[in-house]
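Changelog-adjacent note: as of this version, every example in the card shows the full chain rather than a window. The one below runs 475 residues end to end.
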Amino acid sequence: MTKKLVRDLSKLIGKDKVSDDELIIRLYSKNAVYMEGKAIAVVFPYSSTDVSKIVRYAYNHDLKIYPQGSTSELVGSSTPHTDGIILSFERMNRIKETNLIDSYVVVEPGVKIFELNNHLAKDGYMFPIDPASVKIASVGGAINSGSGGMQGAKYGSIRDWVLELEVVIADEGGSILRLGSKTSKSRQGYDLVRLIVGSEGTLALVTEATLKITPIPENTVIAAAFFDSLEDLMNSAIEIKKRRMDILLMEFVEDKSVDIAIKMLESKVTGVGHYLLVGVNTAVEARSRVINSLAESMKLHNSNRIYTARSMSEAEKMGLFDIRRNYYLASIRLASESRSDPFSGIKVYVEDISVPPSQLVEAVKRLRGLSEKYNLSMTLAGHIGDGNLHPVVWIEEKDESKREALVNMVSDIMMLALELGGTVSSEHGIGLTKKEGLVMEFNSKESSKAIELMKKIKRLFDPKGILNPDKMFIW
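Full-length structure tokens:
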């Protein structure tokens, strides 16, 4: 079957766009954590016409399709789960139009967000969605995942920045549809654009996106501080929010990860304790006043060291972002160094809950309590400007006794988010790992019928179930 499939697809779109090399398949079958699947082939379309041909063939041959950007996701949404083809959009990477007057850019799904912003910065504009993997994350992957990032405190998630989509749906003809419009206001009946954003490639394949863009702020001041107490850090963050500043970002990293990140990076920024990083948009003339207010808020809650920068470029040179950006790598390093068996692999789980910012201190207390309850190591960081927390928990693969504890702790983490008025998934998506959490969330709202509605929508868009099957729902 594999040889015939490769021959057929090669005839359809070109031999250079199809690979059944085992090493290539394995490379594209992994995500950014421990997850790995299997596939028959990897296919690299160059255009929406290519995608349409592939979908038409897949529909008529009941072939599963696993769409993929740069595999930087953390929940299994890009990994193949049963035999099928991986559809990699990495070669569809053109920036097709930039319109400053109408404040949009038109791109293909394989464009990297970092490269897009380099392009836009030449004209003083930006696309403000910045996931931690921003240097490798693609626009298509971000749309599928419903990504957020460090600037979410001000700019929200990607659902707020998609104006129009070109998509291919899984019908007999591989139909190409254009949804939304290039205007900031558009009512087209049901909002199919927002339905597809965050749907993890289960409803349609995005082949082009029109994204809103915004001017780069005139100036952003940055303050970073270390705290002995995590409660003091959280209270400082709350104090800053009360001062009615135009907060661009508000991030934190707990002390264990801070320590190893500083050592790992040989950081210019040194200090002991938990790390708070705050960015505030302000006019150049107001920089000193805003910096003083930030520093005052941090000192009021017992910061033991404060760094300030008068601009983003100065903050970058000082290395103020390095500790936060390298939190996940520091957690992996800490997990590796803490192994009792140096030959054992590590299973790392990255959580993604949100709570209302007013509940952050309580959420942190409960998270630390769960770490103690289950006797599992945990690091903690997050986008506290919008209440999004990313605890990282790990076990050694050889330690069978800890596997059940990990499953139970993850379940309890999601439950505490719901108990505090939050959500089980903020920006990473559902994929394979959060299907039970999705059920938990709607059950907590006495709205379990919502999942049945979602399943009906899935069947309507994808009647044969060929697009990213087995993701998101417990069927």
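Structural remarks: The first helix runs from residue 2 to 13.
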